[in-house]
Amino acid sequence: MSDLDQLTRSLARNLKRWRGERGFTLDVLAARAGVSRGMIIQIEQARTNPSVGTTVKLADALGVSITTLLDHEQDTRVRLVPESQAVRMWSTDAGSSSTLLVGTEARGPLELWTWRLTPGEGSVSDPHPEGTVELLHVTEGELTLLVEDRTYPVPAGTSATFQAHVPHGYRNETAGPVVFTLAVAIPPVG
Question: Does residue 110 have a pLDDT over 70?
Answer without folding.
Answer: yes
